[in-house]
Amino acid sequence: MTKKAGPIAARHVIWSGRKLAIVVCIALSLVAIFRFQLQYDLSYAAPVYRPRFRVSHDIFNGRPKIAFLFLTRRDLPLDFLWGSFFENADVANFSIYVHSSPGFVLDESTSRSKFFYDRQLSNSIQVVWGESSMIAAERLLLEAALEDPANRRFVLLSDSCVPLHNFSYIYNYLMASPRSFVDSFVDGKEHRYNPKMSPIIPKDKWRKGSQWISLIRRHAEVIVDDEIIFSVFKTLCKRRPPLDTSKGKLNLKQQKQHNCIPDEHYVQTLFAMSGIEHELERRTLTYTQWNLSATKMEKKGWHPMTFGYANAGPQQIKEIKSINHIYYETEFRTEWCRTDLTSVPCFLFARKFSRGASMRLLSEGVVGPFDATAVLGTPP
C-alpha cells in the first residue's frame, strides 16, 4: 500500500498543479479582458477624430467662398430662383454641391440653370428620411466641399429652400461672423435619447436642433472626421415606424423603440461632445413656419408648412426678415441674433417654398431680376 501511494500522490500533485495553472491562466485572461474593456470604454467616452490630410484652415489667404450644399430628392425644382440668385454674384465667391439620388445627372435636360450643371456628387447614396443615411449624405457634401481650400463657409439647404436676400447681403453676413450657426438646445420632453448610447454619448450631451446648418471650415472638418459618434447614431438612432396594427406583437415591439431622428440630433450632439458649443451661434439661418394647430395632447409632431403663392407676398417676407430673436422654451433662453456682436435679422433663407411662391419672390425682386423665360420654361 505504501509503495503504491507514492506514484498516486505524485500524479495527484502534478494534476493539482496543472489545474492550478489553468485556473491562474483563466484568471489572468479575465483580468486582461477586463482591463482591455475598461480602456475601450474610456477611449470611447469622447469622440476620437482622425483628421485627414487637407489644406489647413489657418493658412488660406485667397478670396473666401461660400459652399452651397443642396440635399435633394432628385432634381432642384427651384433651380430657376437660385439661378437668378447666383447670376448676381461673382463666381469666385461661391461653389455649389448637390447630393441627389444615385445616378442622377444635372445637365441642360434636367436643370434650368447652368450653375447646377454637373454639380451632383458622384458618390451619392439613397437617402431615407429619419434614418442615418440623411446625415451620411450631409457628410458626403461637406467632404466634397472641403476639397476646395477656398470654401470657408458651408451652408446646408434643402430642395425647397429659398434665399431671403440677394447674394451680396448673404455673403457679407456669413463672412462677418467667425462662428458657425447651429440650432442647438436641450429637449427632455420627447425622450429620444437611447440609454444604450451611454457611456459613449452621455445623456447630458444630448442635443436637438434644426438640420439646416451653416458652418465655418474647422467645424465642417469636425463632422467629416468623426468616426465614433456617427457610428453610434447609425446603430442606435432609429426612426420609429408608423403604427400598423396588422403586425400584432411585432408592431408593439417596434413602437417601444426610441423615436430618434438623426438629422435633428447628430451635429448638435457631436459639437456638444467636442466642447465647441461656445464657438457657435446656437440658431439656424433657415426659417421654417411650423404647423402649430396640433394640441399637446395629440400624438403627432409639428410639420413644416409649405409656402404657396398666396402667402409669399411682400408683407409675409418682410415679417420673416424682421425677426431678430428666437426663444427656446425648453431652456428658457432667448437667442438675440448677432454676427460678430452686431445685431442682425435672424434668417437668410426659408423653407418650404412651392414653385408658385418662388415665382412670386422673383417677381417681387427679392433675390434678383425677374426672368420669365427661366421661370416658365421647362428643361427639354
TrEMBL record:
Molecular function (Gene Ontology), one example: glycosyltransferase activity
CC annotations in GO: membrane
Main location: membrane
Annotated transmembrane regions: 20-38
Domain of life of the native organism: Eukaryota
Membrane topology: Single-pass type II membrane protein
rRNA-binding keyword on record: no
UniProt-annotated location(s): Membrane
Name of the protein: Core-2/I-branching beta-1,6-N-acetylglucosaminyltransferase family protein
Source organism (scientific name): Acer saccharum
